[in-house]
Amino acid sequence: MIVKLGLCRMEFIQGDITQQHVDAIVNAANSQLAGGSGVDGAIHRVGGPAIMQEAQQKYPEGCAVGKAVASGAGNLPAKHVFHTVGPIWKGGRQSEPELLASACRACLNLAVQHHCESIAFPAISTGAYGYPIDLAANNLVKTTMDFVRWHQKPQLVRFVLFDAGAFGAFARAVEEVVP
Ligand code: AR6
Fold first, then answer.
1. Closest to 85 measured CA to CA, from 74, 96, 73
2. Which residue numbers are catalytic?
3. How far is the CA of 4 from the centre of ligand 1 (A)?
4. DSSP structural state of residue 73
5. Measuring CA to CA, how many Å separate 109 from each of 23, 24, 31, 143?
6. How do residues 138-162 score in pLDDT, each as one tens digit?
7. CA distances from 54 to 5, 62, 168 (A)
8. Is the model's pLDDT at 179 over the cut of 80?
9. pTM score, whole prediction
10. What domains can you pick out in the chain, each with its CATH number?
11. What is the CB neighbour count within 10 angstroms for residue 73?
12. What percent of the chain has pLDDT over 70?
């Protein structure tokens, strides 16, 4: 599924984020940048140990929730990995929506700063961190659309959804958000 926004576009596919040939891949990390399961585990497994070494060396204090930091991409078919920390879902009244949008925007800002033409996102926070997929999809689609409409960058934002359920949630979100 493709949404055109001026000269830019958003794509939604079902797949594995570690296989994406893009300038930057977003990692759904934890605030210690310590590695883990899900996307984080896959990125370090496929990308190799250089990614975590660099991230821990450059950012010994880790990364706060709603922020993002950049490292190289090791053996991944990308130039950069942007490690962002989404909120843990605690019912929705502890600033989770603001923090998820902030994490997404932090990655898009890093993409602009690093002159990335393309970036791939997973569904941040919707695995181990328990954010309901429909709510996350709406939030991430809207946040990205607002950013790309305003900045006209990056040229390509691809959401890589791991399973059919997540893909369906993003497809519904696009239908709701796109006029
Ligand atoms: N490609 C694309 N999406 C994936 C992949 C993949 N290879 N693997 C899983 N997903 P999660 P979080 C989907 O748990 O919720 C880690 O331990 C998955 O189905 O990776 O932000 C970190 O170290 C889900 O929809 O990230 C943190 O401690 C989405 O990616 C914590 O988990 C996000 O699931 C972060 O939790």
1. 96
2. 40
3. 27
4. -
5. 14, 12, 19, 12
6. 999 999 999 999 999 999 999 999 9
7. 34, 12, 35
8. no
9. 0.98
10. 2-177 (3.40.220.10)
11. 25
12. 99
Tell me how far apart the terminal alpha carbons of the chain are, to the nearest angstrom.
16
Distance 27 CA to ligand 1 centre (A): 8
What pLDDT digit, counting tens, does each position of 10-28 carry?
A: 999 999 999 999 999 999 9
Q: Which of 141, 157, 154, 139 is nearest to 100 (CA)?
A: 139
* Residue to mutate (ligand 1; options 13, 39, 43, 131; most atoms within 8 A of CB): 39
β-pairing, 80-84 vs 118-121, is unpaired
CB-CB neighbours of 172 under 10 Å: 15
Q: Where are the beta strands (DSSP E) in the chain?
A: 2-5, 8-14, 24-28, 68-72, 80-84, 118-121, 156-161
Cα separation values, 44 from 72, 74, 141, Å: 12, 9, 26
Span from the CA of 29 to the centroid of ligand 1 (angstroms):
8
Question: How many beta carbons lie within 10 A of that of residue 26, not counting itself?
Answer: 31
Atom of ligand 1 nearest to the CA of 133: 25
In the β-sheet with 68-72, what is the strand arrangement from edge to edge? 2-5, 8-14, 156-161, 118-121, 24-28, 80-84, 68-72
